[in-house]
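Tip: read the tokens left to right.
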């Protein structure tokens, strides 16, 4: 039973790690595509209060999408509601990951945010320590390295 739980934990953490890396890269390339370099430079140098406002913007963008997904679900459109909610979660994670990576020092100056961040990071470190020696995790790391190398070769 313990082995099954560790394997399930490994799968969840692998998915989380891959999605975070992928969405962070997408956020970076989206910012380049939309020519948002000056906005990103500003975010890196902004005050803690403005960083807090900046991290709230993705939440405000995604909330109406979440509400629309909920409405679809309530009206019996399960597949559409689930797909819209999945889209909202991916978009929200992409935006929050990008803004957080740019404003992390300012955001961590707030004691409550720092406490939540340290708590979550502590859980993630604990969970990774539990799965790092599992076969599935070692395999996923190798696969991830191969995928990254192929993408890098394709992009030049």
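Filled-in amino acids:
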């Amino acid at each position: 039973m313990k082995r099954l739980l560790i394997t399930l934990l490994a799968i969840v953490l692998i998915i989380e790690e891959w999605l975070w890396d992928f969405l962070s890269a997408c956020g970076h390339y989206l910012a380049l595509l939309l020519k948002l370099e000056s906005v990103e430079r500003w975010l890196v140098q902004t005050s803690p209060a403005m960083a807090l406002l900046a991290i709230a913007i993705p939440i405000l963008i995604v909330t109406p999408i979440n509400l629309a997904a909920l409405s679809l679900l309530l009206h019996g459109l399960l597949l559409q509601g689930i797909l819209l909610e999945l889209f909202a979660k991916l978009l929200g994670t992409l935006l929050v990951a990008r803004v957080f990576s740019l404003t992390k020092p300012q955001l961590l100056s707030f004691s409550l945010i720092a406490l939540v961040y340290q708590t979550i990071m502590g859980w993630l470190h604990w969970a990774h320590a539990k799965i790092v020696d599992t076969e599935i995790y070692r395999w996923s790391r190798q696969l991830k390295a191969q995928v990254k190398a192929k993408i890098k070769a394709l992009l030049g």
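The radius of gyration is 18 Å. The CA atoms of residues 132 and 138 lie 7 Å apart.
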